[in-house]
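hey so i finally got around to running the thing on that chain from the lab meeting. sorry it took forever, my laptop kept dying and i had to restart like 3 times. anyway pasting the input first so we r on the same page abt which one it is
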Amino acid sequence: MKHFLLIYDYAPDFMEKRGTVRPAHLELCRASVARGELQLGGAVPNDDPPFGLLLFKAESAQVAEDFARADPYTNGGVVTSWRVREWITVVGEGALTKV
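ok and heres what got predicted. didnt touch it at all, straight out
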């Protein structure tokens, strides 16, 4: 297993845009958590520009990529772009690469 970060770039007015699609987004998140994929997720709203960060645990980046493609946030204008990056975790209880 590996960790992957899904990084969302938010639209400038993401707070207004997310209202109608947020319930479906959270439903998708909860389903991914139940499968053991999504570990943590949330917004970094005070950066300029604001962004979202979701941590996945999976065999490949495909899990996070599929999530992003299916997410109402990416299809509803809340997210303007996204990318997935492997994160090699080495310290902490949940680290997947022991050193």
